[in-house]
C-alpha cells in the first residue's frame, strides 16, 4: 500500500536540523533534532503556554499535516465514534461497595465525560452525590479526576484532580455534610491521600520538579500546605514512593521501590506523629508488599529466589524479615500477582499457563479452593472487599467475546452472585464472534501466546486485515478482556490479536526476565514472530497487518519498524518511547533513574549503552522503506515526553526511501493518557482505527462482515 493509493500527495513538515553532538563511552553521536526538546520542559508541564514558539509552530504544523492527510476519513471517524459510543451505557453506574453504614459507588450521567462519586445507605436507598466530575471540569480543556477517598468516620472526602495532563495532581477536602470543599488545597501531589485513623488529617506524597514522588507529608485538616509535616524523604532518585492504608485503618504503609527492588515502612494510623518503622531494608532484586490480617501481616515476596513469589506472614508487632514464616509456597511457573486478607480467609490472584485464577484459603482450617471458569481465554480482576470482617469478596470477569461481569463471591459457601453485566446498548451477540488462543513459535523455540478475536463469518484465507497489539515491558500482562472499541474493526472484517510477548508476566516471572535488559530483543522478535505466525495460519497477510502499541509498546512499534518493516502494512505508535537511549542517559528526566533496572544504565555501563543503542528506534532509523506510520503524543506527558515522537517522525521522514507518509498527532492539551473524558478519548481511538482502515483499504467496508467495497 503506497502513499499515492490512499493518502493525498501533500508536503510534510520538515524539521530544521540543528546538530548537537554527544559522547558516551568513547562513542560520538549526533542528534539533528535535539532542539525539539524545550529547555523549560518542566515549566511547560505545568503551563503549556510557555512552550518555545518555534517548537509550537512545528507541532502545530504536524497537526495540520496529519489532519489534511486524514481529512477524507472525517465521516468514517464520526461513524466509528458513534458506534463505540453506542456500545457504552451513558448513564452507567457501578455496584456500590459496602463500608460500615454506607455503600459507595461511581456513576455517569447521560452525555457526561467524567465520573461522579455517590453513596447510599449500606443496603441501598437514595443516592447522595458527593462529587460531580463534570461540574468540576467545566471550562477546562483538560480535566481528570484521580481519586476520591472517604475518611474512616465517613465525614470527609479527599479528592484529587489534574487539569493540565502533566500528572501534577491537586488535592482538596470536601465536607460531606455540606458537600462543600474546605479551604485545604494541596498541590503537586501524586493524586491521592490516606486518612489517619481519626479522620483529622491525611498522608500524601509530593512530586518534585522532576516529577518524582520522593517526600511523604502529613496534612492536618485546616492547616496550610507549607506547614505540613515531612514524614519521610527518599533521597535515591532511582526509587519512587507511594502511600497506602490497611483494611482495618490500623496502619499506614510507605512503599518504596523501582522495577525490581522494594522496601516498606509502617506507621500506626492512630499516631501520625510516630516514627516510621522499617519492615525489611531494601535488597537489590528482592520485592515484597504487605497486607494486614488482624494480628499478622501477610507478605507477598520473592525472597530466597522465589521468582514466581510466595506469601509469608509476620506478627504486626514484629514484622521484621527475621520473623517471616512461609504460608503459601512458590509454585514455579505459576506467579502470584496480588493478595488480600480477611478475618477468616486469605485470597490471592495467580496466573498459571497464562490464565488468571483466584485462590482462597480458610485461615482456620487451611482448606484451599479456586474459583472455576469455563472459557479458554479470559480476564479476571480481584476487587476484594472494603471490609475485613466479611465472607464476601467481589471479582470481575470478561473474555474477548463476553462483556464484563461483576460477582459477589461467598468464600464460605462458594456461591457466586452476579451483580452486573456490562450493558452494550447497541447490542452484542457473543455467538457472532470467535475467540481463540494460539501459540506462535518464536525464533528461539519459545511459544508465544496470542489471543485473537474475529467475526464468525470472517474468511480465514489470508485476506482479512489484522490489528496486532503488543506491549511487552515492566512485567505487565495484557488481559484477554472484553473491548467494545475493537468491535468496530472486527465488524469490518478485521482480526483483532493480542501478542503476549516476553517482557510481560503472561507466562510467569521468567517470561518477564527474558524480555528485559540484555534480553530485550526477545520482546521485538516475539512480536514479529506472532505476525509471521498469523500469516502462516492464514488469519491475515503481511500487507494487511497494522501493528499497535503505546508507551513502552510504542518502543516496540519503533523497534519492529526498523527490524521488519516489510512484515506490516501500517504502524500505530501512541505516546511511543522511541528515544530510549537519550532518555535513559538523562537522569534529570522524570522516570529515568527508576528505569535503569528495567533497561540497564547506559551512563555507567558501556555494555548497557551499546545494547540499548542496538535497538533504540530513534538511533536506528535508516535509509529503507517503512510502512505508513501514525504517531500520537501529548504535550504535557511526563512519562514519554512529546519530543521523543517529534524527533522520531522528523528523522524517519529525512531518511526513509519510500513514499508512505508518517503522521504525527499531538494533543496540545493532554499528557500520557490522552484525552481525559470517556467520550473524548473515543475520538482518539476512532482516529487510530480510521488510520488502520485507511492503510488496509477498508474505509468503504460495511459493518458486520459484509463485503468490502
What does it look like?
This protein is 19% helix and 33% strand. With 709 residues, it is α+β, with helices and mostly antiparallel strands. Among the domains are: 140-286, Methylamine Dehydrogenase, Chain H, CATH 2.130.10.120; 293-424, Methylamine Dehydrogenase, Chain H (7 Propeller), CATH 2.130.10; 432-540, Rossmann fold, CATH 3.40.50. An eight-stranded mixed sheet has the order 31-32-34-33-35-36-37-38, with helices on both faces. A four-stranded antiparallel sheet has the order 3-4-5-6. Strands 7-8-9-10 form a four-stranded antiparallel sheet, with no helix packed on it. Strand 1 (20-24) and strand 2 (27-31) form a beta hairpin. Helix 8 (521-536) packs across helix 9. The longest helix is centred in the N-terminal third of the chain and has 17 residues, at 53-69. One of its GO terms (biological process) is proteolysis. Residues 483-698 form the Peptidase S9 prolyl oligopeptidase catalytic domain. Belongs to the peptidase S9A family.
Tertiary shape: globular
Number of helices: 14
* Mean pLDDT across every amino acid position: 93
Structural class: alpha+beta
Main β-sheet: number of strands, strand sense, barrel status? 8 strands, mixed
The CATH first-level class of the domain at 140-286 comes to Mainly Beta
Number of strands: 38
| Spatial order of the strands forming the largest sheet | 31-32-34-33-35-36-37-38
CATH topology of the domain at 140-286: Methylamine Dehydrogenase, Chain H
Name given to the CATH homologous superfamily of the domain at 140-286: Prolyl oligopeptidase, N-terminal domain
Termini gap: 17 Å
Which blocks of ≥5 consecutive residues have pLDDT under 50? 705-709
Helix fraction bin: 10-25%
- Radius of gyration, in Å, reads 25 Å
What portion of the residues fall into strands of 2 or more residues?
Answer: 25-35%
Amino acid at each position: 500500500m503506497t502513499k499515492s493509493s490512499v493518502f493525498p500527495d501533500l508536503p510534510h513538515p520538515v524539521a530544521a536540523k540543528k546538530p548537537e553532538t554527544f559522547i558516551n563511552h568513547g562513542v560520538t553521536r549526533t542528534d539533528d533534532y535535539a532542539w525539539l526538546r524545550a529547555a523549560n520542559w518542566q515549566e511547560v508541564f505545568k503551563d503549556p503556554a510557555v512552550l518555545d514558539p518555534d517548537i509550537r509552530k512545528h507541532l502545530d504544523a504536524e497537526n495540520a499535516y496529519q489532519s489534511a492527510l486524514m481529512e477524507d476519513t472525517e465521516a468514517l471517524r464520526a461513524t466509528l465514534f458513534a458506534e463505540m459510543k453506542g456500545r457504552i451505557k451513558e448513564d452507567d453506574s457501578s455496584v456500590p461497595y459496602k463500608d460500615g453504614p454506607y455503600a459507595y459507588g461511581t456513576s455517569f450521567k447521560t452525555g457526561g465525560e467524567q465520573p461522579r462519586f455517590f453513596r447510599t445507605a449500606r443496603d441501598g436507598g437514595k443516592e447522595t452525590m458527593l462529587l460531580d466530575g463534570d461540574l468540576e471540569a467545566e471550562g477546562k480543556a483538560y480535566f481528570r479526576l484521580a481519586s476520591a477517598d472517604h475518611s474512616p468516620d465517613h465525614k470527609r472526602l479527599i479528592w484529587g484532580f489534574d487539569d493540565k495532563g502533566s500528572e501534577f495532581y491537586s488535592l482538596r477536602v470536601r465536607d460531606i455534610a455540606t458537600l462543600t470543599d474546605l479551604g485545604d488545597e494541596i498541590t503537586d501531589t501524586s493524586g491521592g491521600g490516606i486518612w489517619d485513623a481519626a479522620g483529622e488529617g491525611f498522608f500524601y506524597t509530593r512530586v518534585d520538579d522532576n516529577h518524582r514522588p520522593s517526600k511523604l507529608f502529613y496534612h492536618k485538616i485546616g492547616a496550610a500546605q507549607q506547614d505540613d509535616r515531612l514524614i519521610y524523604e527518599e533521597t535515591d532518585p532511582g526509587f519512587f514512593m507511594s502511600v497506602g492504608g490497611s483494611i482495618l485503618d490500623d496502619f499506614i504503609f510507605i512503599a518504596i521501590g523501582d522495577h525490581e527492588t522494594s522496601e516498606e515502612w509502617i506507621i500506626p494510623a492512630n499516631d501520625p506523629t510516630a516514627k516510621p518503622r522499617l519492615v525489611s531494608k531494601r535488597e537489590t532484586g528482592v520485592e515484597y508488599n504487605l497486607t494486614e490480617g488482624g494480628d499478622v501481616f501477610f507478605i507477598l515476596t520473592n525472597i530466597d529466589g522465589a521468582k514466581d513469589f510466595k506469601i509469608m506472614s509476620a506478627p504486626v508487632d514484629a514484622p521484621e524479615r527475621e520473623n517471616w514464616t512461609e504460608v503459601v509456597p512458590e509454585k514455579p511457573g505459576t506467579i502470584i500477582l496480588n493478595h488480600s486478607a480477611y478475618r477468616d480467609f486469605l485470597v490471592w490472584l495467580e496466573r498459571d499457563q497464562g490464565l488468571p485464577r483466584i485462590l482462597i484459603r480458610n485461615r482456620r482450617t487451611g482448606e484451599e479452593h479456586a474459583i472455576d471458569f469455563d472459557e479458554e481465554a479470559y480476564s479476571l480482576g480481584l476487587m476484594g472487599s472494603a471490609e475485613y470482617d466479611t465472607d464476601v469478596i467481589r471479582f470481575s470477569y470478561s473474555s474477548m467475546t463476553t462483556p464484563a461481569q461483576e460477582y459477589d463471591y461467598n468464600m464460605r459457601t462458594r456461591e457466586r452472585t452476579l451483580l452486573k453485566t456490562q450493558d452494550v446498548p447497541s447490542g452484542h451477540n457473543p455467538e457472532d464472534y470467535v475467540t481463540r488462543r494460539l501459540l506462535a513459535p518464536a525464533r528461539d523455540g519459545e511459544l508465544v501466546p496470542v489471543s485473537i478475536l474475529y467475526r464468525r463469518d470472517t474468511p480465514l484465507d489470508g485476506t482479512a486485515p489484522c490489528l496486532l497489539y503488543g506491549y511487552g515491558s515492566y512485567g505487565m500482562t495484557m488481559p484477554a478482556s472484553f473491548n467494545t472499541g475493537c468491535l468496530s474493526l472486527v465488524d469490518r472484517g478485521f482480526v483483532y490479536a493480542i501478542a503476549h510477548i516476553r517482557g510481560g508476566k503472561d507466562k510467569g516471572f521468567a517470561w518477564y526476565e527474558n524480555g528485559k535488559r540484555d534480553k530485550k530483543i526477545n520482546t521485538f522478535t516475539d512480536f514479529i514472530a506472532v505476525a509471521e505466525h498469523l500469516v502462516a495460519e492464514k488469519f491475515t497477510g503481511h500487507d494487511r497487518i497494522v501493528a499497535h502499541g503505546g508507551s513502552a509498546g510504542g518502543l516496540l512499534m519503533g523497534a519492529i519498524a526498523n527490524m521488519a518493516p516489510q512484515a506490516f502494512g501500517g504502524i500505530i505508535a501512541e505516546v511511543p518511547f522511541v528515544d530510549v537511549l537519550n532518555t535513559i542517559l538523562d537522569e534529570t528526566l522524570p522516570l529515568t533513574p527508576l528505569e535503569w533496572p528495567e533497561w540497564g544504565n547506559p551512563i555507567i555501563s558501556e555494555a548497557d549503552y551499546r545494547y540499548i543503542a542496538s535497538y533504540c528506534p530513534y538511533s536506528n532509523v535508516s535509509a529503507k522503506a517503512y510502512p505508513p506510520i501514525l504517531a500520537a503524543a501529548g504535550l504535557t506527558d511526563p512519562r514519554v515526553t512529546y519530543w521523543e515522537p517529534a524527533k522520531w517522525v522528523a528523522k524517519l521522514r529525512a531518511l526513509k526511501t519510500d513514499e508512505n507518509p508518517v503522521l504525527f498527532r499531538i494533543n496540545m492539551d493532554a499528557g500520557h493518557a490522552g484525552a481525559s473524558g470517556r467520550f473524548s478519548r473515543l475520538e482518539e481511538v476512532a482516529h487510530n482505527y480510521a488510520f488502520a482502515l485507511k492503510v488496509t483499504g477498508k474505509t468503504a467496508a460495511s459493518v458486520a462482515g459484509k463485503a468490502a467495497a
